[in-house]
Amino acid sequence: MKRYFTNRLLLFVPTLMGSLTLVFFLIHFIPGDPVEVMLGETASSVDKEALRQELGLNQPLGIQYIRFFSALLQGDLGRSLYEQGTVAELILSRFPATMELTLAAMGIALFVAFPLGILAAVKKNSLMDRIALLFSLLGLAMPNFWLGPLLMIIFSIELGWLPVSGREGLAHLILPSFTLGMLMASILIRMVRSSLLETIHEDYIQTARAKGLSEWRVWLKHALGNSLLSVITIVGLQFGALLAGSIITETIFAWPGIGRLTIQAIQTRDYPLVQGCVLVISTSYLVVNFLTDILYHLADPRVSYGP
Amino acid sequence: MDHRTLVWTGATILLLLLGVALLGPAIAPYSPTEQHLEQDLLSPSQDHLLGTDKLGRDILSRILYGARISVLVGTSTVGVSLLIGLSIGSLSGYCGGWVDQLLMRLVDVLMAFPGILLAIAFTAVLGPGLNHVILALCLIGWTGYARLVRGEILALREREFIHAARALGGSPGRIIVLHLLPNLLPPLLIQATFGMAAAIIAEGSLSFLGLGVQPPTPSWGSMLNEGRQFLLIAPHLTTFPGLAIMITVLGLNLVGDGMRDRLEKRGK
User: Fold this and answer.
1) What is the pLDDT of residues B178-210, one digit of tens each?
2) Secondary structure of chain A in the HEC alphabet?
3) Nearest CA of chain A to the CA of B241: how many Å?
4) Peptide bond into B25 cis (omega under 30)
5) Are B116 and A286 inside 8 Å of each other by CB?
6) Average per-residue pLDDT in chain A?
7) How far apart are CA B36 and CA A196, in angstroms?
8) Between chain A and chain B, how many beta carbons pairs sit less than 8 Å apart?
9) A288 to chain B nearest CA, in Å?
10) Chain A residues with CB-CB distance to B254 below 8 A
């Protein structure tokens, strides 16, 4: 375990450094003068110079790079150009909303995918199996920037059951989390079904049956338990994807999380804030993937660190 | 559904899409950009089969023209990404050593970002527009192909027919192109099909966020974004472009699934 952890950590640290480096260069990719792009052509040269100094853009690239990392180590992500407060404060204030949405989406995905995936495997080639496959196919093809407005039309506008947007209670969470979780549910249905069908032919399953256990007990206790391993990986990887997907969902439902903050920052050309948001989302994605790897290894020590 | 049915259903959808993209200008009943402000937000009718938008533009004509953008983004993104991924993956797999290490760490870094986040970040700094969308999608798209090609080459390069080609004096370039590439084609084709679906959705997402194709050019994603403001009074503005994206992606996924099933069956 220790060796596996060390190996994964050795791979994780340079990847994290590489992705932080890419985030550092984001502002430098802006064509032309980044300061002019941020403040507009009409800004006075005094204002431009002040911002250039604040962002450290008047210093050599190497110095900027070192300052970026030393500031990061102190949790300093800079200041927003237009919002009150530091980038770190702004992101921290929005983080709970994003986590709430992401976790709820994950919950919905698991709640939909497990029963459908299990039924599809147990009743292979039945009508139920076909319904699950169709659900999965449509879920994979339906972009969340369409599903969101569609759910809004049906459940908020036509039926009036759920609120259109905002974050004021549990009812507000339902449509955004379903919109965000649908893709993950579609992937998981296939995963649960296929891993169950693979496991069901193992010898120990035949033994469980020979011992006289009921068919449902065989499927749920013995087959599902061992299929969960491969599902953990997908859940972990998809959790990171959910974080990224929240950018669109939060924009649709005016959900006050980091995703919406990112888009607002892009629209106002508040690049220090954009940089901070991208950094936090990508780092969370990396950390979740790293933890998934470790969890997977804890659950199944046979998993080794491959070449 | 067996793989044959999947592939044929998907292929029929894709052929229709291609036909629509090619013949769009000939079959579109109206100009996609011509405004008729007196006919704004009309519901579907005989004159306008899918209705009109806030500027009185015909939705059907805009969807037909929008198909061209989706086909263009899908094919160019996959084409360029495939080319870069194939070159870097071959180099990495064939050379091994520090070249392999360096290139694969670069792939790791780019793959450490959720794809759509990086695409949003790139278009945010480069500025909106179709070319920037394609560039951003290519910058993130090649990594998957590179990793796939490298893995396949690592598995293939120790096979006897490659040793034989080397013994006969074949240059690395010749061995890659003549002997390795033909064996790489099936998995690459499958990945390219799913890649095209992902590129179409990504373009839609970026245009939806206002970072992609700019008005008045019709793109399915930007049509959805424009229609979002009129959900209450004109839901058809969002329904039809979304349906177009879903059907296209469904077609690509069906073809990809079918080809993958067939390849897996052959491998067993």
Assistant:
1) 888 888 888 899 999 999 999 999 999 999 998
2) CHHHHHHHHHHHHHHHHHHHHHHHHHHHHCCCCHHHHHHCCCCCHHHHHHHHHHHCCCCCHHHHHHHHHHHHHCCCCCECCCCCCEHHHHHHHHHHHHHHHHHHHHHHHHHHHHHHHHHHHHCCCCHHHHHHHHHHHHHHHCCHHHHHHHHHHHHHHHCCCCCCCCCCCHHHHHHHHHHHHHHHHHHHHHHHHHHHHHHCCCHHHHHHHHCCCCHHHHHHHHHHHHHHHHHHHHHHHHHHHHHHHHHHHHHHCCCCCHHHHHHHHHHCCCHHHHHHHHHHHHHHHHHHHHHHHHHHHHHCCCCCCCC
3) 9
4) no
5) no
6) 86
7) 57
8) 129
9) 11
10) 137
At B13-64, the pLDDT tens digits run 999 999 999 998 889 999 999 898 898 888 999 999 999 999 999 999 999 9
Tally the C-alpha atoms within 13 A of residue B143's C-alpha that lie toward its C-beta.
18
Phi/psi of residue A264, nearest 5 degrees: -60, -40
User: Which of B112, B125, B221 faces A15 most closely, judged by CB atoms?
Assistant: B112
Say if the ipTM goes beyond 0.90. Answer: no
Would you give the DSSP letter of residue B44?
S
Contact A244 B117 (CB under 8 A): yes
